[in-house]
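PT: before anyone asks, these are the final sequences, not the draft ones from last week. 901 residues across everything. Please model them as a single complex and drop the result in this thread when it's through.
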Amino acid sequence: MKGYNFAYLDEQTKRMIRRALLKAVAIPGHQVPFGSREMPLPYGWGTGGIQVTASVLGPRDVLKVIDQGADDTTNAVSIRRFFALTAGVATTTATAEATVIQTRHRIPEKQLREDQIIVYQVPQPEPLFRLESSRVETKRMHGLADYGLMHVKLYEDVARFGQISISYDYPVMVNERYLMSPSPIPAFDNPKMDMMPALQLFGAGREKRIYAIPPWTRVRSLDFDDHPFRTINAPYPCGLCGAADSYLDEVVTDDRGGRLFVCSDTDHCAERRAAGHVGTDGFQEAAE
Amino acid sequence: MTEPTLLSGRGLNLNFGAIPALADVDVDLWPGEMLAIVGESGSGKTTLLNVLSGRVAPDRGIVRYRDPAGQLHDVHAMPAPALRTLHRSDWGFVHQDPRQNLRMSVSAGGNVGERLMARGARHYGDIRGAALDWLAQVEIDAGRIDDLPRTFSGGMLQRLQIARTLVTHPRLVFMDEPTGGLDVSVQARLLDLIRSLVARLRIAVVLVTHDIGVARLLAHRIAVMQRGRIVETGLTDQVLDDPRHPYTQLLVSSVLNT
Amino acid sequence: MAYVAVKGGEQAIDNAHAWLAEERRGDIATPALSVRQIEEQLGRSVDRVMAEGSLYDRELAALAIKQAQGDLIEAAFLLRAYRTTLPRFAHSVAVETGTMRIERRVSAIFKDLPGGQVLGPTYDYTHRLLDFSLLDDNAAVSECATAVANSDVMPRVPDILGDEGLLEADVVSSREPGDLTREPLTFPAARDVRLQALARGDEGFLLGLGYSTQRGYGGSHPFAGEIRMGEVSVEIEPAELGFSIDIGDLILTECQMVNQFTGSKTVPPQFTRGYGLVFGFGERKAMAMALVDRAMRASELGEDVTAPAQNVEFVLYHSDNIEATGFVEHLKLPHYVDFQSELQNVRRMRQEAAE
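LR: through. Structure below.
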């Protein structure tokens, strides 16, 4: 785009962000402060993810952007357009074709590969913030690996509800050292982070933090021996493609309590339907 | 005593501006012993507690702690993580105001279990079992385990703080006026509880109090402080029954007169 | 009935933008508002957008106001997003407010002082009565009397007090000041960084915080030592030249609060300072900023930190309205994946509770 550098940010800024990314990769799960820039999109709408993506993107990359698992949600559209405009890179909705995937709130169902990077948009990088509001104090807790407080939260859950009641942004231990927020993905997606072949990068623009999980790193969801981590999903197959193992959105179909459960990952669902899978509420795809 | 000391301070000096808060203080504490530091407010006893526990660094002097393996550590030269680990496992701190230590928005059970979890306990049933056991030991009804501390009385809060501190079986506990601010009848029950727990678990305690009566009831030895100096030290009965230093005499007689 | 997944985000965005453009223009029978008109006639809005947008450019600020339909936070946001892309050629030398070409200068702590009190173009003593004559676009404006204030004899009031040692000395530092637009906020945050955050901060937020210090939440017995507004020169010192050159002028508002301090064991009683400096005519904000700056010095001055305005972390993390508006408004983005997991979670827990 005229008047702007490739992928919007100037090269100095990208270098600064890449240095933060390198540090983040070297210390898995550790939050690295960085000089987050003001972006033309609002804080809380993915400025951290956009800056990370802009810094790792090259002209030959193929970009996929999802929000809530879908390529067609307005914010995903807006971010994809932003990079198409400022970087001129190819974009795709197909998980397998993408080299860089920027996401808000989901990890694609399809297993990611070593030659892919997934960039998470992070609203609140500090996993302890609800328990301790001072960042000076939480920084000290991370430094000393003093995570008793997080377990107190889990204890309180079990004492009150008989189970751990966190359903998204479920805290994880990375490489058995740093407590980390996985961003507000459903707990359903947590197991995908563990030993993932792809590089996982996390950007929090407003909070000015970057963190990372290198490929093939152990990511463990916190739990108790006698109350192990469980994922949560609606107990149905996808109404459109019949998938029984994908995360489902609930769609209200009428005002008489009608519900339809469909894949949140729209690419996954479309691919399955193209391959001939049909759910109870779907219809046979016309041959294209 | 033939055993080596658990904690010892040598030549401790600390000034606040022109005011000497600690002047050439030497202290020794043996395993399982309770040492009371008595004096009026402003005498430097709380400062001494903070210096001994590594929370405030002295201008001069050294504090040494002997770990279970017999290794000596210079408390003020320890790296912060090691000191923090010490404070949440081998050591404990009981504040005058239990709200400083307790998490008021966390249930009684969670408060007691926190130190266990910080130390790596990962079995909910075991943690809850330990919390129930400790609530019983500090005479808090098991039915209160899931209640928030804000529903507790002052005496219960203090007992909960003690349970939270002792759950990891520390070898050394620092207590700052643990019965201060409580009614006399509540005080007596708490003192009784502290005495029996400490004796049974053989915990060494440094106790700061302005109350000679508390010191007499709990402490094996006593150190009397005035203007940052220890003016007299010895076995509790000896010091209180036969005070040598004029200041100690004054303190003891003022208690007798009230 | 077969269900077809919702699509159409692209089209929806295009349509929304087109509608927005139409609404922005309004009734085309009414003449379009020019950027020049905004710059000239909505000067206080322009000032506020420049201050919170952290960019001193009246024309761009006016453009942003026009583009944002007068939504000043949105306008500041536009300006910030533009500013961040600009190359940085040089740092200015610290501006000298002592030699400001004064348009307004008042002190609440002296009846009269060298250079006198200069009211300038203030609303202070207007009666807040709607002036219906302004309904007439062509109403004549009577000419005002002008007299150029003699800036040469206008020492800054704190300097007058400082000469007697009654006021704490300003600490001169040779350290390069911090820059929040380049480096993330870290703690403890030095005063230069705190002041930068306040200068960029939201006027309403600072006003509320400053006000709270007057109502018992971290009070510091403030006196408005001096408020001055006027033009200062901006100079840069290119390394190859070795001397500074004037590159332009800024209008600034500066507020120096003078606060009581009872002294400590080592320091005899003296007055302390709170400082505010804002782009353009921003007197309300400069005063609030000075109150909050002083409140945040509580810990440095050995005072108890109990009130929100004294909590440096709290103030600095929440004063930026661009960060705040983005994050508050992001709640309208879809969260249905998380909500869905909560829904299943609550259903499961209710079911298990019922069993």
